[in-house]
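Holo prediction. Input below; ligand is zinc ion.
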Amino acid sequence: MLTNKEIENIFLESEALLKGHFRLTSGRHSDQYMQCAKVLQYPHFTETLCKDLAERFQGEKIDVVIGPAMGGIIVAYEMARQLKAKAIFAERVNENLELRRGFCIMPEDNVLIVEDVITTGGSIKEVIDLVRGTGVNIVGAALLVDRSAGKVDLGVRTESLLSMEVISYEEEECPLCKENIPVVKPGSRKI
Ligand SMILES: [Zn+2]
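Structure of the complex:
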């Protein structure tokens, strides 16, 4: 099992997690910025993280791993590889998440739901509802990052590698602005 520090270091090293002084898309300021896709750029990091997450479901029978597109696709694939299960994804068609491309879940399947990062859990809850509608057994939910710090209740057993609250401030109240630290808009930086 990885320690919390080792997990955080993988996010920092891949620059999925940036620390500094950021202007978020909401306009609020924060001392950290998360772009989970950046860690999934590196198959060796994805493998290490998913191995740890998969170990938490050791002893459970899992036939299918499913996540919502786009964030859940790579996580579902790597988790399924490690659990020797099938990986599928749900994708948005107009408003709703659906199974397309001939993907299906059989009534006897044991299903693990995955997502790279949740804040309000909107997409993953939709996947849970979609899967629940088929009447199969939901083993649980596996997340790389829970940005609600455990506040979002998915109604199923939930495991996350990194649990961290989004702390942000209005510009006028931002302690980093008060220290005259230059503010960065994430994504505008050329690396
Ligand atoms: Zn600020």
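Helices lie at 4-13, 43-55, 71-83, 122-132, 175-178. That is the main takeaway for now.
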